[in-house]
Amino acid sequence: MIIGSTGSIGEQALEVIAYHSDKFQVVGLAAGSNWQRLAEQALHFGVKKVAIGDKALYPNIKTAVSGLELWAGEEGLCYLAGLEEAQTVIVSVTGAVGILPTLAAIRAGKKVALANKETLVAGGEVVTKLARQYNAAIIPVDSEHSAIFQCLRNEGRFLRKLWLTASGGPFRDFTPEELGKVTPEMALHHPNWSMGKKITVDSATLMNKGLEVIEAHYLFSVGYDDIQVLVHRQSIVHSMVEFIDGSFLAHLGVPDMRIPIQYALSYPDRWPSPALSLDWASCQTLQFEPPDTKRFPALELAYEAGRIGGTMPAVLNAANEEAVYSFLDGQIRFVQIAELVAEVMGRHGVVLEPDLESVLEADAWARECFRTLLRK
Ligand SMILES: NC(=O)c1ccc[n+]([C@@H]2O[C@H](COP(=O)([O-])OP(=O)(O)OC[C@H]3O[C@@H](n4cnc5c(N)ncnc54)[C@H](OP(=O)(O)O)[C@@H]3O)[C@@H](O)[C@H]2O)c1
């Protein structure tokens, strides 16, 4: 089952599945609005159960393909995430829209291959609590978290620190003046990875790394003081763990998301992969440097939201989602993304130990607060 099959991760997950077609059968697919591609995927993989997030597009896909069991909206995504015949659910939608299908998959006892980081950022407390209650496996797909997951196998009790690596994005060498002139076209060119628009902009502001810090906190139960970020331009070291005896284990490989996607499916085994092998002769230099949080304040905002806890990470995430799409629409400048997120966070009255309802309310509140600020 893939929730978010038409995106960058969803398409690569289908490639991995096609490569190992003897091991998988796709029983359902869901996407947001790209009904044409969703229909093509369903026909190609012989999938009979499909959901489209945008209810208004239900008639389009219904007339395009016959013989499908069709669902729409949030209920449709949740229904498919809990589908009886699915064993593994890949959650690869973008944004907090991933929360409810992830919870539905956990409740239904599925193995969850989680690419969608916003779910753990916004709803980390609720999701991890439910996963413990249902003894559900959440296997990270995000390359940094997959790297840590692989380095930590059986040795979590000896952990001292997590080291998350970041490419630094396309503007890592820009001056503050140059950052003031960044356009959406410039921000959508990532130096090392080909990804969806939202995460590409997040990588350029370093908010992506901030979201990953919070994601790591919830996935590995590590305090924020023990999660460090390093800028590593080559994106060869995908992350590292430091143990109490001073040893480090790092995960290295080519920057190809099919590797962590496949690992989430093959775990605890490993299978041959269509990804290229690392050519050591062409990567003789591996550089590491601390991030510059003055030029990229979004990273520090995420640490702050994580440390405050409660509903604050949900507010950070929702304000950031709104800010990224406003930047892409030309309504705000690149540097205003972090400024406006900080402004929304400053206005929020935090609810500690939130339940699902408080998380969803905080998410909705932050979006409304952002839009009010934008109108001003
Ligand atoms: N791409 C990467 O390399 C990468 C790496 C690590 C982590 N991640 C994380 O993985 C997630 C997906 O990233 P991506 O790059 O694959 O994004 P993407 O290319 O923008 O794809 C997003 C997917 O989510 C679907 N979607 C969006 N809104 C929806 C809604 N309301 N209901 C149902 N489906 C909806 C989209 O469907 P339509 O296109 O049909 O609208 C699409 O299938 C993000 O959380 C990202 O942070 C991505």
TrEMBL record:
Positions of Mn(2+) binding: 142, 144, 212
Binding site for 1-deoxy-D-xylulose 5-phosphate: 117, 143-144, 167, 190, 203, 208-209, 212
EC number(s) from the headed UniProt entry: 1.1.1.267
Pfam families, sorted: DXP_redisom_C, DXP_reductoisom, DXPR_C
UniProt keyword terms in alphabetical order: Isoprene biosynthesis, Magnesium, Manganese, Metal-binding, NADP, Oxidoreductase
UniProt xrefs under Gene3D superfamilies: 1.10.1740.10, NAD(P)-binding Rossmann-like Domain
Keyword Manganese among UniProt keywords: yes
Metabolic or biological pathway, per its Swiss-Prot or TrEMBL entry: Isoprenoid biosynthesis; isopentenyl diphosphate biosynthesis via DXP pathway; isopentenyl diphosphate from 1-deoxy-D-xylulose 5-phosphate: step 1/6
Residue stretches spanning the membrane: none
The protein's required cofactors: Mg(2+); Mn(2+)
GO biological process, one term: isopentenyl diphosphate biosynthetic process, methylerythritol 4-phosphate pathway involved in terpenoid biosynthetic process
Residues binding NADPH, per UniProt: 6-9, 32, 34, 116, 118, 196
Limits of the DXP reductoisomerase C-terminal domain: 252-368
Top-level taxon in the UniProt lineage: Bacteria
1-deoxy-D-xylulose 5-phosphate reductoisomerase N-terminal domain residues: 1-124
Residue ranges annotated for the 1-deoxy-D-xylulose 5-phosphate reductoisomerase C-terminal domain, each copy included: 138-220
GO MF, one example: manganese ion binding
Catalytic activity: 2-C-methyl-D-erythritol 4-phosphate + NADP(+) = 1-deoxy-D-xylulose 5-phosphate + NADPH + H(+)
Enzyme class: oxidoreductase
UniProt xrefs under InterPro entries: DXP_reductoisomerase (IPR003821), DXP_reductoisomerase_C (IPR013644), DXP_reductoisomerase_N (IPR013512), DXPR_C (IPR026877), DXPR_C_sf (IPR036169), NAD(P)-bd_dom_sf (IPR036291)
Family according to the record: Belongs to the DXR family.
Record's function text: Catalyzes the NADPH-dependent rearrangement and reduction of 1-deoxy-D-xylulose-5-phosphate (DXP) to 2-C-methyl-D-erythritol 4-phosphate (MEP).
Protein name as annotated: 1-deoxy-D-xylulose 5-phosphate reductoisomerase
Native species: Syntrophothermus lipocalidus (strain DSM 12680 / TGB-C1)
